[in-house]
Amino acid sequence: MRIDILSVVPELLNSPFSHSILKRALNKGIAEVHIHNPRDFSTDKHKKVDDYMYGGGAGLVMTCQPIADCIESLKKDRNYDEIIYMTPDGEQLNQAIVNEYSLKKNIMILCGHYKGIDQRIRDLYITREISIGDYVLSGGELGAAVLTDAILRIIPGAINNEESALTDSFQDNLLAPPVYTRPANFRGHKVPEVLTSGDFPKIEKWREEQAYERTKKRRPDLLQ
Ligand code: ADE
């Protein structure tokens, strides 16, 4: 799969995809992430990408031309399954949306800045608007990184043990059960006995119960 991210602060996206699972997915060639700066498309002599808000108001708005030209140059080369705008007034991201996108071929993600982007860009090009939570970030980049991370880590081949992504929190509307590693006794705190019993059906049952209990306590909304 291919993800194109449009950002006027591309430096913010340098690091998130250079480590661990995502780095492996990109190195193996099962996914590509490309970053584009709408500023490179600006026809303004100072390469401006923002301007004052019509009607007055504090803060600048990202202008149409650089974004429109950037999107159109990408669309010339391939069809996009979705053109997403990261915005706090979008639909809230969840695992179901991530799962859906992990099956797509080409996704474009537009990051806003300042007071946001001109509404006409949203009307003309954007097919879905996504928020990563009810708080306002200084730009869409961290949200785009969150979305890209969540998608890439579950595409087939990214995680060595395929089962591992299926047992994540939220995959079956349950939070993940607690996990332990060696030593079996850490300063007098012991690992639950069932986990060292070697009785795998019993371990599986214990994990299911723990997942259910944890969800009931912390996120009862997921059980409805
Ligand atoms: N841009 C600014 N705030 C955001 C949020 N909460 N989610 C996605 N993009 C954003």
Keywords:
alpha/beta; Trp Operon Repressor, Chain A; 2 domains; five-stranded parallel β-sheet; two-stranded antiparallel sheet; elongated; binds adenine
User: Unreliable segments (pLDDT under 50, ≥5 consecutive)?
Assistant: none
Number of helices: 7
Look at the structure and name the CATH superfamily of the largest domain: SPOUT methyltransferase, trefoil knot domain
Radius of gyration computed on alpha carbons: 22 Å
Largest sheet: 5 strands, parallel
Number of domain modules: 2
- Overall body shape: elongated
Query: Pairing-aware structural class of the strands and helices?
Result: alpha/beta
- Through-space gap between termini: 33 Å
CATH class of the largest domain: Alpha Beta
Ligand inventory reads: adenine
Q: Strand tally, please? A: 9
Describe this structure in words.
This protein is α/β, with parallel strands linked by helices. The protein has helices at residues 20-27, 64-77, 95-102, 119-125, 141-152, 163-166, 200-218; strands at 2-6, 32-36, 50-52, 60-62, 82-92, 106-111, 128-131, 185-186, 189-190. The strands form three sheets. It has a five-stranded parallel sheet. It has a two-stranded antiparallel sheet with strand order 3-4. The chain has a two-stranded antiparallel sheet with strand order 8-9. The longest helix has 19 residues, at 200-218. Helix content is 32%, strand content 18%. β1, α1 (20-27) and β2 form a beta-alpha-beta unit. It folds into two domains: 2-152, Alpha/beta knot; 167-223, tRNA(m1g37)methyltransferase, domain 2 (Trp Operon Repressor, Chain A, Orthogonal Bundle), CATH 1.10.1270. α3 (95-102) packs across α5. The relative contact order is 0.15. Adenine (ADE) binds next to β5.
